Amino acid sequence: MSTSSAPNGTVVLRYTLAVDAQLPPAQSFFARSALDVARDLIGCTFLFEGIGGRIVETEAYRQDDPCCHGFNGRTARNAVLFGPPGHLYVYFTYGMHYCSNVACEEEGVGAGVLLRALEPDHGVERMIARRGLADPRLLCSGPARLAQALGIGRDQNGVPVWKPPMAILPRGAGGARVAGVPHIVATPRIGVRGGDQKPWRFVDTDSEFLSRPLPCAARPGRPPGA
Predict the structure, then answer these.
(1) Helices and strands (H, E) in the chain, number of each type
(2) How many domains does the chain divide into?
(3) What residues form DSSP beta bridges with 150?
(4) Nearest to 172 by CA among 22, 46, 5
(5) What is the pLDDT of residues 39-77, one digit of tens each?
């Protein structure tokens, strides 16, 4: 992987070859570092029962990371996070929201990728009905919004993401509006404990559907002070 620096502590990443094939990723795609999977999912399409859109924002969590649900070991609540890889780990937060993650790395390791934001382009009317609003930028721009818009809840915990009713399609497949190589930047994650600054949040800098917009100065190709 090649990188270059950008202002405000961001890192510009070059897209890898892992999702270039025009076939849905197999389970082995997820049996890799959560950092690699989080990066390579940007630009792919995530669907549940045919509803979803292009992934524009993810965050990686590894077992040696105090912010990870697997940091203190395996429990009944987080068992899906410990594998096998490629299964959806759904957790309930703040007593009201579900969030969707994909378990990564080898079985027995507690690591995953949080799906933070989608660009909605499949089943938008269903998403609008579930979310109770019409602004497409607010349908899936955040992990709780994403889960609500797609109808993901506790019953989906442990479901494999590479086969129905889930699907993850390579970029440009499934009618995705943007088929080109995404411009990816890595930034610190959002809302993690202790002000952790690891650049483990991955975003498509051209997207208007992020959970939190990038500062203009952090976008690649923008001259300092512009």
Answers:
(1) 3, 10
(2) 1
(3) none
(4) 22
(5) 999 999 999 999 999 999 999 999 888 888 988 889 999
Tell me if 24 is assigned to some domain.
yes
Q: Say what angle helices 143-150 and 124-131 make with each other, to 10 degrees.
A: 110
In this structure, are residues 143 and 115 in contact, taking their beta carbons and an 8 Å threshold?
A: yes
What's the N-to-C CA distance of the chain in angstroms?
A: 28
Range of 190's domain? 3-215
- Residues shown for the chain: 226
CATH number for the domain that contains residue 109: 3.10.300.10
pLDDT tens digits for 145-199?
A: 999 999 999 999 999 999 999 999 988 765 555 456 789 999 999 988 776 789 9
DSSP assignment of 160-209 equals BTTSTTEEEE-TT-TT-S--S---EEEEPPSS-GGG-----EEEETT-S-
Whether 115 is covered by a domain: the verdict is yes
Asked whether 103 and 81 are in contact (CB, 8 A), the reply is: yes
Please name which of 88, 204, 77 lies closest in space to residue 150, comparing C-alpha atoms: 88
Task: Classify residue 171: in a domain, yes or no.
Answer: yes
**Sign for the pseudo-dihedral over CA of 45, 17, 69, 201:** negative
Within a domain: 226:
no
Radius of gyration of the chain measured on its C-alpha atoms: 16
